[in-house]
TrEMBL record:
It comes from the Eukaryota. Keywords: Calcium, Disulfide bond, Heme, Hydrogen peroxide, Iron, Metal-binding, Oxidoreductase, Peroxidase, Secreted, Signal. InterPro entries: Haem_peroxidase, Haem_peroxidase_sf, Peroxidase_pln, Peroxidases_heam-ligand_BS, Secretory_peroxidase. It comes from Selaginella moellendorffii (Spikemoss). The keyword Signal applies. This is Peroxidase. Ca(2+) 2 binds at residues 188, 239, 247.
Length: 332
């Protein structure tokens, strides 16, 4: 029943998206170039798909899905760009993979595919490589010209937050509580640094671990994450024993109090979300269908258009505004 309802929701959403977007990139070979680039990098580093998925999230939550997260600082903005925000600095990754795909696409279709679209398609391909469901990514995004570290600090969800804070951050980009639960399911792959949850291991009553965390698992995590805080911070899988499989084990782990981050655990703790968490823990296919739907919802966040965006030539920098280009940029 729930599955049938969600299929209806999926197709209605598809129709709405189609009115603002196109299906398929404005360069037929581009989808294959992205898929191949993501796959080649996965062979070199099996953790890279998780990085690309997170990159898409961190892009869409700040200024909408417009590749603002990829802009490098320029002499005028110093370090004041998104990539230096608390949730990104030394942790957001995958830029070089997007750059690689962009270079391949520019060689065949110059100026046709935005970096924002490449990130969205690469995120889809990343989940598919590890067992997620294929879905059509609506495309036609333009790249933004603004990257603001302060805004990123305000908008990115933090691993220390409670359910109300998380709901607010998701609502900022038009996402529901259901989207919050499903998109948190992206933690079915990937790792996190100890510093994002070390407080749960050492800073509760009498220096004991957070009692909401499975005691045996907490003891195992304390052996990996030392209290002094090693540099670089060690990492652990977000989905215990299942970090390379895009499956619903993340939700089963939440139910067993094996959620690593506070922001994971609150999903099974809150009465508003625990029902859905338990439901997803029991139905692997439902998770995959609903995750794809929520990814499309997130990918729809605040698109730039030709009026306020551009197709960047290089993903790390806005296009230089040569006189010959101004007409193109201003044209709607
Ligand atoms: C960056 O975002 C902050 C927080 O929303 C805002 O106050 C500030 O004006 C923005 N800076 C620029 C240069 O737009
Ligand atoms: C430990 O917890 C206290 C109270 O919640 C907090 O003020 C402090 O910053 C925490 N310290 C660390 C190292 O997380």
């Amino acid at each position: 029943m729930a599955a049938r309802l969600s299929l209806v929701a999926c197709c209605l959403l598809g129709l709405i998206a189609a009115t603002i977007a196109q299906i398929g990139l404005q360069c037929p070979p581009a989808e294959a170039s992205i898929r191949d680039t993501v796959f080649q990098n996965f062979l070199k580093d099996p953790t890279s798909p998780a990085g690309l998925l997170r990159l898409h999230f961190h892009d869409c939550f700040v200024e909408g899905c417009d590749a603002s997260v990829m802009l490098e600082s320029t002499p005028t903005d110093g370090t004041d760009v998104e990539r230096f925000a608390d949730g990104n600095d030394n942790s957001v990754r995958g830029f070089e993979i997007i750059d690689e795909a962009k270079t391949r696409i520019e060689a065949v279709c110059p100026g046709a595919v935005s970096c924002a679209d490449i990130i969205a398609v690469a995120a889809r391909d990343s989940s598919v490589i590890l067992g997620g469901l294929f879905y059509q990514v609506p495309t036609g995004r333009y790249d933004g010209r603004v990257s603001n570290r302060t805004l990123a600090n305000e908008r990115l969800a933090s691993p220390f937050e409670n359910i109300d804070q998380l709901k607010r951050k998701f609502a900022n980009v038009g996402l529901s509580t259901q989207d919050l639960v499903l998109l948190s399911g992206g933690h079915t792959i990937g790792r996190t640094k100890c510093r994002f949850f070390e407080n749960r291991l050492y800073n509760f009553t009498g220096g004991l671990p957070d009692p909401r965390l499975n005691a045996e698992y907490a003891a195992a995590l304390r052996r990996i994450c030392t209290p002094q805080g090693a540099d670089p911070s060690p990492t652990v899988a977000l989905d215990r024993n299942s970090e390379f499989s895009f499956d619903n084990a993340y939700f089963r782990n939440l139910v067993a109090n094996n959620g690593v981050l506070n922001s994971d655990h609150v999903l099974v703790e809150s009465s508003e979300t625990s029902g859905l968490v338990r439901f997803l823990a029991q139905d692997p296919n439902l998770f995959k269908v609903l995750f794809a739907e929520s990814m499309i919802n997130m990918g729809n966040a605040a698109w730039k258009t030709r009026a306020n965006g551009e197709i960047r030539r290089k993903c790390s920098a806005v296009n230089t505004r040569l006189t010959t280009e101004v007409g193109h940029i201003a044209a709607v």
